[in-house]
Write a sequence for this structure.
């Protein structure tokens, strides 16, 4: 076994044992692109080794996806994918876990018709409403891991010779998921404990407001009553733990929908559905985005914030120290799974039901009433830097510094 094969095997084990934490007799659905076939085959085998009942892989292909956007009939983007939504619903309602292996070229859909993109996103989001509600409430087990595609690797390592780019991205991914540690599973257990301690501290404080200060950023975010700080491990509807993201470095909760005021400036590019948005700022008043500008990708940003009513409000506030391993790598992955875990971030769109007490059982109306934003989208964007200070403010006005120059101060 080569060093690479060894690491790939360890990564497959992590995906199964720490990511979805597959249970005996459980079905597993894997969504993956052909570029990740080598990893996916190992994951499938590992899942069966761990007692999976049946593993189904839904394959996709970047080239085929792009050909569709370039060449398919206009009206085909309005087709209701109800067969797909129905299949996914049937699996998860019967207890299946879902694993996404992401590998897409960050520029895959650069330059395609915005109308086609919007039409597809709207019809797809609508068909997947029920599925998304289940996911936002952690009703079923879901997890995301990554594998390089040649185009993605070329974007991250443009200065390397083409035949070294994929290997370089694999090594970078392996480091971020702690495959370089002697016992990666034990390293993850320890990391999960450390993140949980931060969440426990923040939950004990019950801050009513956070105040962010950094160059280009002066923002206050109210936190709703009953908000819960969540880290690393989640629990599905049956109480079985899973890790939604590998890697994960964040401790996060939900902002009060109408409680965001001020301006925030991005610190990393955001790759949104195959298009890059960069050097952008958003201005909020009573939670609503009332102004935005972007040096790069302003039209994409506009499409994002105009997707629906909830796309003008925030649904997540996440704390990630600037000295996290991903941040230390100095790499820009052009992929939210990695870049969000290198930086303090916020998300435009829906809040997670599990970030408020009793949220998993709430209706949409109850969530709104509790101050949690509803939307068909949830898009993280990065705002952290080595110059960011964050203060937690209690209901009685007492102030505690929780981030100092980009790192945990607690
Ligand atoms: Zn996040
Ligand atoms: Zn998020």
């Amino acid at each position: 076994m080569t060093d690479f094969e060894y690491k790939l095997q360890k990564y497959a084990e992590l995906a199964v044992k720490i990511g979805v934490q597959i249970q005996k007799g459980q079905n597993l659905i894997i969504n993956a692109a052909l570029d990740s076939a080598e990893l996916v085959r190992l994951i499938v085998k590992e899942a069966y080794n761990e007692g999976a009942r049946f593993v189904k892989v839904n394959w996709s292909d970047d080239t085929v996806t792009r050909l569709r956007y370039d060449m398919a009939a206009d009206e085909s983007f309005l087709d209701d994918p109800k067969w797909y939504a129905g299949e996914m619903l049937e699996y998860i309602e019967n207890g299946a876990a879902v694993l996404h292996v992401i590998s897409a070229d960050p520029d895959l859909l650069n330059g395609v018709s915005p109308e086609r993109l919007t039409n597809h996103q709207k019809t797809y989001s609508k068909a997947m409403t029920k599925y998304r509600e289940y996911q936002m409430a952690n009703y079923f087990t879901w997890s995301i891991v990554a594998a390089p595609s040649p185009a993605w690797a070329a974007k991250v390592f443009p200065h390397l010779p083409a035949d070294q780019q994929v290997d370089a991205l694999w090594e970078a991914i392996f480091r971020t998921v702690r495959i370089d540690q002697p016992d990666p599973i034990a390293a993850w257990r320890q990391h999960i404990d450390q993140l949980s301690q931060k969440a426990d501290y923040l939950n004990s404080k019950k801050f009513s407001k956070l105040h962010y200060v950094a160059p280009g950023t002066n923002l206050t975010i109210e936190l709703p009553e009953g908000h819960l700080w969540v880290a690393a491990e989640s629990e599905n509807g049956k109480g079985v733990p899973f890790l939604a993201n590998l890697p994960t470095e964040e401790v996060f909760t939900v902002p009060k929908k109408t409680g965001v005021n001020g301006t925030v400036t991005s610190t990393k590019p955001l790759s949104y559905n195959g298009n890059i948005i960069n050097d952008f700022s958003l201005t909020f008043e009573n939670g609503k985005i009332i102004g935005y500008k972007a040096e790069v990708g302003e039209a994409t940003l506009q499409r994002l914030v105009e997707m629906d009513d909830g796309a003008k409000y925030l649904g997540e506030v996440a704390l990630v120290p600037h000295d996290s391993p991903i941040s230390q790598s100095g790499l820009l992955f052009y992929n939210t799974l990695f870049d969000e875990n290198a930086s303090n971030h916020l998300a435009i769109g829906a809040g997670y039901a599990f970030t408020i007490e009793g949220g998993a059982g709430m209706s949409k109306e109850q969530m709104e009433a509790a101050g949690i934003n509803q939307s068909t989208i949830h898009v993280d964007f990065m705002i952290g830097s080595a110059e960011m200070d964050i203060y937690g403010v209690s209901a009685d006005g007492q102030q505690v510094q929780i981030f100092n120059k980009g790192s945990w101060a607690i």
The pocket of zinc ion (ligand 1) is lined by residues 250, 252, 316, 318, 340, 345, 380 (CB under 6 Å). The longest strand covers residues 275-285. The chain has 13 helices and 20 strands.
